[in-house]
Design brief:
Layout: H1 5-19, E1 32-37, E2 44-52, E3 55-63, E4 71-73, E5 88-93, E6 102-107, E7 112-115, E8 123-124, E9 134-140, E10 144-151, E11 154-161, E12 168-169, E13 174-175, E14 183-188, E15 191-198, E16 201-208, E17 214-217, E18 226-233, E19 236-243, E20 251-258, E21 264-267, E22 274-280, E23 286-292, E24 295-301, E25 309-314, E26 320-325, E27 331-335, E28 344-348, E29 356-357
Antiparallel strand pairs: 1-2, 2-3, 3-4, 5-6, 6-7, 7-8, 9-10, 10-11, 11-12, 11-13, 14-15, 15-16, 16-17, 18-19, 19-20, 20-21, 22-23, 23-24, 24-25, 26-27, 27-28, 28-29
Keywords: Signal
Protein name: Photosynthesis system II assembly factor Ycf48/Hcf136-like domain-containing protein
């Protein structure tokens, strides 16, 4: 009996899911990337969706050679957000080595799954919070995993050492009367910085060098301005302040702090696009992701915020998210709506000056 190519592809995918074995296979036609995470220049992951009957099923792919080959790994049984939010994936390794203990996290905003064994097995995770949970930013340092979540109108940062299910409350909770977490997390090495706030309050900022001892900073942005963070190097912190969203535009101000000093204005990115993400490759190189008219934009500065230029303008996609730099040259992002099939993953090898698409 002749076996069709479609059946062979399905059998290979099934074998990979059941055993967790590494298979040199590409994503099937119709795969829509939702999230990407790169622990190193050569080691990357992409989570996305494939048609699954009348539904969509998650698929997870991993590369260990910079995207030359990809392997399907075990994906959690997560479903797309009923609110249209992107389903996000992040993974961190103890000490930064991809051979160390790891924590992988996936959320669609209302449900979260975690893996503590290299994405071989998954379990539902509530991070120790009680009641219905809304999950926001997730990041990993070289020592800890962090999650910003809201339950009962209270927003809290949760922390657990990489490779362990030992979630504790990391910073003081903020009662914001919001049903979703509003804030950001940025990491570099063992350093982490977090902001928590809302449209009607100034975003409080905390920093840590080890995950256990936290120092509260003066607010980096004025009251009501969205505060997103980046740690370009040890002791240095960028804060992107965004406010006054309009039709495809938003005011933006880049601030900078060195060795715990007060934040000062470093520059003003273009108003183009509603801010959706922010990252920094160094103290001179920072990138702002935004969207307007369903077009994805990346604005880049290479002189610490003094001048800006648009290095990505992708029409018919949507917001930029998962914007991150592994080092001064290499970075990645996802642009678009995975649930609408407009999403595309991009990588850069020149510090954000150019971006190219890739496929697992």
């Amino acid at each position: 009996m002749r076996i069709s190519k479609l059946v062979v592809t399905a059998l290979i995918a099934l074998t990979t899911v059941v055993t967790g074995a590494v298979q040199a296979s590409a994503a099937p036609a119709g795969f829509a990337p939702s999230s990407t995470s790169w622990p190193s220049v050569s080691h990357g992951w992409v989570l996305g969706w494939v048609p699954c009957g009348s539904d969509k099923c998650a698929r997870l792919y991993q590369t260990m050679d910079g995207g030359k080959t990809w392997a399907q790994r075990v994906a959690p049984p997560i479903k797309p957000s009923e609110y249209g939010d992107p389903t996000r994936f992040t993974i961190g390794y103890d000490g930064g080595s991809t051979r160390g203990a790891s924590t992988a996290l996936v959320t669609n905003g209302t449900t979260a799954y975690a893996s503590y064994d290299g994405a071989r097995t998954w379990q539902t995770e509530t991070f120790g919070a009680g009641g219905p949970l809304s999950v926001g930013t997730m990041k990993a340092s070289t020592t800890d995993a962090y999650v910003l979540a809201t339950s009962g109108g209270t927003t809290q940062l949760y922390r657990s050492p990489l490779g362990k299910r030992a979630w504790t409350k990391a910073t003081p909770a903020r009662k914001l009367d919001l049903t979703y977490p509003s804030g950001d997390i940025a990491t570099r090495g063992a350093t982490a910085v977090v902001s928590i706030g809302s449209d009607s309050t100034a975003y409080a900022v905390w920093t840590t060098k080890n995950g256990t001892s936290w120092t509260r900073r003066e607010p980096s942005c004025f009251q009501g301005a969205l505060t997103q963070l980046a740690v370009p190097a040890a002791g240095k912190v960028f804060a992107l302040c965004s406010w006054a969203p309009g039709r495809g535009s938003m005011r933006k101000e880049l601030k900078f702090s060195d060795t715990g000093a007060a934040f000062w204005t470093a520059g003003y990115p273009k108003d183009t696009g509603i801010t959706s993400d922010f990252a920094a490759a160094s103290a001179e190189v920072a990138a702002v992701g935004s969207t307007g008219g369903d077009e994805a934009f990346v604005q880049l500065t290479t002189d610490g915020g003094y001048t800006w230029r648009t290095t990505l303008a992708q029409p018919e996609t949507g917001p930029v998210h998962d914007l991150a730099f592994v080092d001064a040259k290499h970075g990645a992002l996802v642009a678009g709506y995975a649930d609408l099939g407009t999403s595309k993953p991009f990588r850069t090898v020149d510090g954000g000056k150019t971006w190219t698409t890739f496929s697992p």
